[in-house]
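Regression report. Comparing outputs from two consecutive submissions.

Submission 1:
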Amino acid sequence: MPAIDETNEKMFLKALKKGVVPATGCTEPVAVALAAAKAMVYLDHEPIKQIMVKVSPNVMKNALAVMVPGVGEPGLLIAAAAGALTGDSSAGLSVIATIPRQKVPAIKELAHSGKIRAQVASVADDLYVEVMVQTRVDKVTVRIAGGHTNIYEIEKNQDFIFKKTRPATHQVSEINHFLQQTSLATIWKFATTVDLAKIMFMEQAGRLNMALAQAGLQHDYGIAVGNHLKTATTGDLEQKIVAYSAPVAGLTVRCQE
């Protein structure tokens, strides 16, 4: 079979590289942590007076009961506290990948102190995150929309430090538009002719996901969906795939859109 044309191949590779991204935790609370961490960059290490988190209904729904890795508690308040106190704003979806164990008590204390509040924003976006961090001296607000790491505004004391065009509500990205218009035959042609060296980055994703799946099946994390499914399966391959997938969902390689 002849190779796929260069333009289509580039778009498929772009889609894979955008979609297969290591993320420490479910991407919704991680986006909140990222916004909080980015806000702290501009606050000169002053003590936090308050944090206000506003998110779209979809983000609120997805993030309420999701555990924040390294802390052992769920929710947006924990995510915001983790991002503000320990987040690496340059790390994207891995913003809270390396929470020091000794910082966990401080994260929990801040999250439960009453200084952090979260509410649903009055927006039509599927994905919208706004985090305002205020100290005694300054106030910084970071806004994300259209993608979990797509910061489009950073505002400090009513002055914009950074600003770019806000993504349109329900905007379809170039990649998604391409995939929506692509035939199954073209997808099959790419999958069966692409040079494997060009997609070796996916091997890391496979290793990460398998390690997480096995850990999730060996321990009672969260509500132990994977363990329950594994116990209920009859050995059927399809059921086994579902059981292995459950512990991984929201933990590592996630699509950003």
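Submission 2:
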Amino acid sequence: MFDTFHSKTLIGKIWFILQFTLKMTFVPIWAIIEYLAPYTNTRPFYLTHQLFWHILPFSFMFFFYIFCPSENSSPNVKYLFIIWGLFAFFYPFVALEVFRILTKYKPVVQKMIHVILGLFGMIVSIWIMILCVISWQFGFFQMASGFTFLIFLCCMAISYFFFSSCRTNLYICLPSENRPFSGVKSYVILFGIFHILVAVGISFLLKIWPACVCGALLTCSFMYCVDAYSCFFTDSYILCEHRETQSEMKKKLPIDGIIQHVVIREMYSKKKNPEELPEEYQFDDELNLEERWYKEFSPFIVWKCQEDI
């Protein structure tokens, strides 16, 4: 984002200042993430990244409104807010330590199975959080519902780490024709209808604040589902080198950071003869990048591993 400011024209600088001011005013988290994170760390699943970074603090901050005790609540419910306070204090430290440990086992070349499992974990976490909100509103297992909500909020963050391309040298990008919003896709429409119907049903069952939170969670679920579907059923993907700014995508070689086109054998074999694979492609189960030059990526923000120290 900030590479726009280096434009030599006055119009470019004015446009940058206006754009950044509007984002900081209306969507500050969006602006901060774009400023701190390298460009390709939040691409190509841009909406999924943005929704995650908005729903995480949103759910945590509105915990009081969602799980507000009522006259019929159990006396033990008050301990939920003590637990929330402990989560608020220790969460940043625990999260950094967990991510540091997980980083040791994360491959430098992003794998499709990790993207899919990460998205699946985020979907499961979202729906369990929705069930926790509904359970609380109907007075079922209120203490357990609140505690489970916080636990799976953390699980969603861990799943996101597996899904994201953070701490990798090469990241996965889907071909444009396999992306969920490149044209009209039937599965996107079906997922959209399903989530809208659930949102309408919840709006009749819950009060306004819990219903709003569930609506936000359902929006995230929709994006996670369409991305997971597109990744699970794609027959190919592209391994790309990271870029710190958008302008580097076309200025640095290779263009768009493309290192290798990869074909998923199981999906490809259903459509074409594996022997007809173009030379510039490789099968995912025979992937060899030794002859492909790419540089090690050092992002602006990193969690140091033991071997880095």
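Expected: both submissions complete independently.
Actual: both completed, but the second showed a warning that disappeared on reload.
Relevant detail on submission 2: Residues 39 and 71 are 49 Å apart (CA to CA).
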